[in-house]
Amino acid sequence: MIKNFDELEKIAKENPSRSVALAMAEESDALAAIMSAAGADIVSPILVGNGDEIRRIAGELGIELGDTRIVEAEGEYDSAEKAVELVKNGEADCLMKGKTATSTIMKAALNKEKGIRGNSLLSHISIANPPNYPKLLVITDAAMNIAPDLDAKIGIINNAVSISRKLGVDKPKVAVIGAVEKVNPAMPATMDAAVLSKMAQRGQIKNCLIDGPFALDNALSKKSCEVKGIVSEVGGDADILLLPTIEAANVLYKSLSVLTDIPMAGIILGAAKPIILTSRADSDRIKYLSILAGVSLV
Hints:
Blueprint: H1 5-14, E1 18-23, H2 28-39, E2 43-49, H3 51-61, E3 69-72, H4 75-88, E4 94-97, H5 102-109, E5 123-128, E6 137-140, H6 150-166, E7 173-177, H7 188-201, E8 209-214, H8 216-220, H9 222-228, E9 240-242, H10 246-259, E10 264-269, E11 275-276, H11 284-297
Parallel strand pairs: 1-2, 1-4, 2-3, 4-11, 6-9, 7-8, 7-9
Antiparallel strand pairs: 5-6, 5-10, 10-11
């Protein structure tokens, strides 16, 4: 089992270097992250954007670009389309979001003719390494599916399970999160949790244990389960947190990234090629860790 990002970094360094196209590379944290990964021989960067601005920012950061390839593009739409084209044509192995908005880069990635759309549901996966939790924690979906219905939640779970299994968890424990730990017909998320739990129990959703609904503390704290009388294999020991909506997942993700120093990563699953996607305001450390996840786990 991969227990932390140091172990994931070791794996990334041992694997062959992969080419990453950074869309709108004139953003300091993304540029610093991808060049750090290049320095560790983890990736070979292709920087897409305004070349003069990229060089200016690199100079301010003290980064030597050397012979790093730069593909000229003007603005976020042009940068996103050209970065996706590089991946589509096989010149790059992975796509990475730089200064572009998520909606812009995903529109380019999902273009039916020119994009890298796959056959699966696309969902966003966050990987966190809380210091007071004994393992890596997968959180989903903070960026793609706005108000997923039951079918979409099954797809999101399957994507998250695939990542957890690559992290070495043979049968991941999926906690379906709501505001309360009891099924309440007035709260649709709790109803979905009950159905998903039963589907997993009957083998309709494979390779994982699913239980819920859980309030967040029940999912992560055995003490909380004991106090509230919750008996569950998943409660207090979750590998995956399935949040009910994009708002809930996004607030949790950004609360962790802004208010704490917890190591985190963000990637998109379900496309034909890996997509490394974080918030534009995320630190260079989060973006570096997201590169590790994108090139090692997808």
